[in-house]
């Protein structure tokens, strides 16, 4: 059986997007390949019939370079998962080298190829493809009409811009009919302290800390809205998980979110603009008088087929087949 190595900078204990991607891709591919998921690839794992998929150009750069020494010009795909495409490839030599060494480049949403062109020119476009990530669909639940519950999911770190939600919560502190839940570990202790302060100032805001993936999905399923404030994204898992259960999204207008939800999506706010976010939440609360929430539901339903497991599985098998055949 051909072998496949998936290199990810984060394993199960991190419970983040890179780990979720690696684990899901292992499931999609293990019917035809023997798949290892590792944090770092040592040359001792070399084999005669294998390929590598490396998540993150900078953080997996050492494994990518090691692979290229053993298999120069062969069987290597690099996946640009977030900060690498929107930050690292513009300034980090190791990240740029990873892209040159790869035979295939994978991005996770439809706006990313243009970002790659803008950063490094069009020469890499020929080996770049979009593979939307997937999640299992869930039943859309009826939501109570007497209140609105919104949930934000993301570890507390600068890239996720939790300060935007903190400020929006303070603006909505006098709205007892609007509840804001926030899920994620405080990777930045200062942001954890800010979350605590927001809870004291705004009784309708709750920071729940890190939760297991299944519980997080249930909370998204029960919410009226998912809020996604990021300043930088490669293609957020949590957006597709919300779309797959019929929970519409309010998102910062950045490439990573636009590439997931579409250029014409009606639920964007300028990155960092807490007042604009609060105004959108209030509009969604008054769904009987404002069509916004209904519009977002329809738009998300149209995007949902992009995140179907069968579509992702087919794209992955095509990628690996090409890698193994391209010697």
Map the helices and strands.
Layout: E1 3-7, H1 17-29, E2 34-38, E3 50-55, H2 61-70, E4 76-80, H3 83-86, H4 93-101, E5 104-107, H5 112-120, E6 128-130, E7 148-153, H6 162-171, E8 178-183, H7 189-201, E9 205-209, H8 213-222, E10 225-228, H9 237-244, E11 249-252, H10 255-261, E12 268-269, H11 274-285, H12 292-303, H13 309-325
Parallel strand pairs: 1-2, 1-3, 3-4, 4-5, 5-6, 7-8, 7-10, 8-9, 10-11, 11-12
Helix pairs in contact: 2-4, 6-7, 6-11
Give start-end ranges of low-pLDDT stretches: none
Q: At the third CATH level, what is the topology name of the largest domain?
A: Rossmann fold
Tell me the Rg in angstroms. Answer: 20 Å
Roughly how much helix do the residues carry, as a percent range?
40-55%
Outline the structure in words.
- There is one protein chain.
- 41% of the residues lie in helices and 17% in strands.
- The chain has helices at 17-29, 61-70, 83-86, 93-101, 112-120, 162-171, 189-201, 213-222, 237-244, 255-261, 274-285, 292-303, 309-325, and strands spanning 3-7, 34-38, 50-55, 76-80, 104-107, 128-130, 148-153, 178-183, 205-209, 225-228, 249-252, 268-269.
- The chain has 13 helices and twelve strands.
- The two termini are 17 Å apart.
- Helix 2 (61-70) runs parallel beside helix 4 (93-101), helix 6 (162-171) packs parallel to helix 7 and helix 6 (162-171) packs across helix 11 (274-285).
- It has 327 residues and is of the alpha/beta class.
- The longest helix has 17 residues, at 309-325.
- The chain has two domains: 3-134 and 308-325, Rossmann fold (3-Layer(aba) Sandwich); 148-306, Glycogen Phosphorylase B (Rossmann fold, 3-Layer(aba) Sandwich).
């Amino acid at each position: 059986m051909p072998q496949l190595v998936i290199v990810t900078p984060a394993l199960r204990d991190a419970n983040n997007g890179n780990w979720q991607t690696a684990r899901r891709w292992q499931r999609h591919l293990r019917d035809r390949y023997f798949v290892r998921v590792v944090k770092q690839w040592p040359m001792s794992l070399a084999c005669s019939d294998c390929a590598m998929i490396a998540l993150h150009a900078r953080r997996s750069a050492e494994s990518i370079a090691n692979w290229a020494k053993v298999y120069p010009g062969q069987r290597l795909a690099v996946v640009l998962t977030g900060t690498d495409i929107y930050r690292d490839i513009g300034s980090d030599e190791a990240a740029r080298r990873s892209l040159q060494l790869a035979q295939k480049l994978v991005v996770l949403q439809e706006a990313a190829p243009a970002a790659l062109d803008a950063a490094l020119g069009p020469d890499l476009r020929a080996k770049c493809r979009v593979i939307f990530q997937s999640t299992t669909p869930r039943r859309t639940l009826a939501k109570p009409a007497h209140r609105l519950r919104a949930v934000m999911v993301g570890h507390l770190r600068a890239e996720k811009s939790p300060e935007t939600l903190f400020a929006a919560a303070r603006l909505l502190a006098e709205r007892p009919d609007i509840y804001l839940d926030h899920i994620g570990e405080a990777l930045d202790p200062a942001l954890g302290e800010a979350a605590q302060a927001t809870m004291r100032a705004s009784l309708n805001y709750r920071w729940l800390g890190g939760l297991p993936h299944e519980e997080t999905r249930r909370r998204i399923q029960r919410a009226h809205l998912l809020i996604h404030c990021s300043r930088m994204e490669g293609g957020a898992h949590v957006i597709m998980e919300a779309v797959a259960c019929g929970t519409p999204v309010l998102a910062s207008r950045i490439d990573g979110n636009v590439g997931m939800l579409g250029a014409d999506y009606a639920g964007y706010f300028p990155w960092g603009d807490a007042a604009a976010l609060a105004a959108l939440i209030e509009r969604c609360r008054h769904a009987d008088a404002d069509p916004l929430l209904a519009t977002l539901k329809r738009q998300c339903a149209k995007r949902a087929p992009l995140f179907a497991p069968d579509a992702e599985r087919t794209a992955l098998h095509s990628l690996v087949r090409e890698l193994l055949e391209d010697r």
